[in-house]
Amino acid sequence: MRPLDLADVFRLSPNPYMVLDRQLRYVTANDAYLRATASRLEDIQGRGVFDLFPHDPNDPNNESVQMLRGSLERVLSTRAPDVLALIPYRVPMHTEQGVVVTERFWSATHTPLLDEQGEVAYILQHTVDVTELQQLKQAAEDQRRESVAASAMEAGVLGRAMKLQETNRLLDTERRHLLRLFEQAPSFMAFLRGREHVFELANPAYEKLVGRRDVVGRPVREALPEVVAQGFVELLDRVYTSGEPYVGRGMLLQLQRHADAPAEEVALDFIYQPILGVDGKVSGIFVQGHDITVQKRVEAALKESEERFRNMADHAPVMLWVTDPSGACTYLNRSWYEFTGQTEETGLGFGWLSATHPDDMKRAQDIFLEANAKKAAFQLDYRLLRKDGEYRWAIDSAAPRFSPSGEFLGYIGSVVDLTERKRVEEEMRRFNAQLERRVQERTAALLEANNELESFSYSVSHDLRAPLRHIMGFANLLEARAGASLDATGRRHLKTISDAARQGGKLVDDLLEFSRMGRTEMKKSTVSLGELVAEAQRDLAPEAEGRKVQWRVGALPTVRADSALLRLVLKNLLSNALKYSRTREEAVIEVWAQEGDGEVEVLVRDNGVGFEMQYVDKLFGVFQRLHRAEQFEGTGIGLANVRRIIARHGGRTWAEGAVGQGATFHFTLPREEPARSLSA
Amino acid sequence: MELKRVLLVEDSPNDAELTLEAFAETGLANEVVWVRDGREALDYLHQEGSFSNRPAGLPAVVLLDLKMPKVDGLQVLEHVKQHPQLKTVPVVMLTSSREEADLARSYGLGVNAYVVKPVGFQDFVRALKELGLFWAVVNEPPPGSLRRTQMP
Fold this sequence. Notes:
By secondary structure, chain A is an alpha+beta fold. Helices cover 44% and strands 27% of the residues of chain A. In chain A, strands 2-1-5-4-3 form a 5-stranded antiparallel β-sheet, with helices on both faces. Chain B is of the alpha/beta class. Chain B has a single domain, classed as Response regulator (Rossmann fold, 3-Layer(aba) Sandwich), CATH 3.40.50. A 5-stranded parallel β-sheet of chain B has the order 2-1-3-4-5, with helices on both faces. In chain B, α1 crosses α5 and α2 runs parallel beside α3. The two termini of chain B are 13 Å apart. The relative contact order of chain B is 0.19. The chains are: A alpha+beta, B alpha/beta. Chain A: This is histidine kinase.
């Protein structure tokens, strides 16, 4: 037997066929098609279908062209056959009058011819001329009015044909609708056929889930190798053999989100639904589900945040509570349970009221419920029963909680045991009172000491001065009366008695002066240092008489000070400078001032005998002297007075010098009245 | 008994003797009557007690020590300055101290002068000389006091 020539079969088929390429140009057509369209193959090959058959040349985008183009394009994009149940289309035809373009009705099926890559290479059109049927239908309607009965049979045949066409059309529409739903569904969907779970369909959501790997046509274990070890193939096997669906909720699995990417964890809700074939056996598994990875992550974060809150709340040193909108307590922290000895069973809800002192219960409840109704913050004092049976004063502060949308959620509040704080406050108060009392006692003691000092210096000034005066007076009288009869030694003794008494009197005077210096009230005013220096120079003129003294007085500012006391300071310093420089041929005494940080520094320098720096601390002490009285007279009170007066002004005193190289004395005065924290 | 121009109120015999010595140098020693405390001073001024027989009249000046037993100098001063007949008599405080409180009280009570006894004898003599000369000689005392012209 001669082998079957498929090209012949195609050419000789009584049904019209033609083949278009992707650009919708004729590749070939069989004899039946050429007859039906009154065309020759060589005339149409390579030409566009719509160039040859525009249906209505005046309207290139007419409805019939749109229908035909739509069907062909669907085939190109879906790679699936497409059916046009009924389409009116004008084509040339052989008639008795020759070739005439006439309107005809067609029913067409377009089938994709795929290449090795699975892409549409060609479209095969199989078309049936249904014009006669259509004309019959028209005729039937025309005749209906004349002879309903006569045409009944014809109409019956026609009706069945139309019904078939209509059903075909509906089915096609429905199929396409379902396909669109499948394609656009937000959940991932796939259909796995057969025992090997070969992907037959996978929607874009599914492709996205598995990283757009080309899964269709491949079994699961090959398309998604990473899920095999995770037990999902076994699961599919079980569904396939048992016919029972499997529902997975929040299932975690490791999945490559892109081909060759490292696997990452995803969380899925899904169902494996077995699909039964016409024979009632499982033919495949429909997979559908949602990727809930992000949702899971948010849930985990929330859970973590809540755990953190709980952990913090449980370890907080205060008692904490949370209520719901009804006022019932939904959370109590560990401190609460530890303090009250309550448990969750006895504490949650309104258990706190049973730990509240009976006398406080009504008030506490009223305040709470009233605030709860108003959704307002509140504060409340009440006595709370501690687990040892003691009622403790507590303060409860609470703030309302609202959801992001402003909905009242209840309260979060804290309770602090006030008893301890009250005790500490009481202790503080007692301590302060004690301190105050001690200050008063100290003050009284100081006043007493001051009074004693007063009366001491008073009696010193009277009682000690008098005998010294008497010694001197009578020594003088003795000298006057009997001086002539005394020998030289006797007269020297008499003079020593007199000198000693005078020195004693001066010491007493100086001591009293020093004591007064510390006690007299200060009367501050604005004082010109320059004027005070000039006054001191005038006062000291007698001491400088007969000596060569060079005064170098620089610019001196005004200061806030007690004028009389400050005059004494300058007089003391200048007097010292004069005194200790008298061994120099020419004494040079310099006085100047310099600005310090918030203070004025005054310096007095002489070129006198100076002193040894190791004794500098003694300089300002009471009755401390660095020179013997035979060298330089004095009681050693002058610099002590200087230091005391400057200290009372809030200033500092110091000195520097070297033996034989003069001395410099410094004192400072605050530029402004220093702020006093305590009244003196 | 004649009326003396200077009433010296002094409890210390040493001071009294020194004062008299000083006055001796000015020739006023015989013009001084010395009493030992405030009580005696008041008796003298009022011509009472042991002084009920003294010649009538008031001294040209009273030299008053501050610190004395019984009635002290400030009390005597206060009495003198508040007494209608005595208040015109000049009173000079003679004291060892320069205590401000004493100074203030004395002037508050109307003292005419306040003298701190110097330690040095020569100074003491000089001070007393000047005092005696001024109050007992130069100064014109109020009526009823002994005047220099009445000096024998």
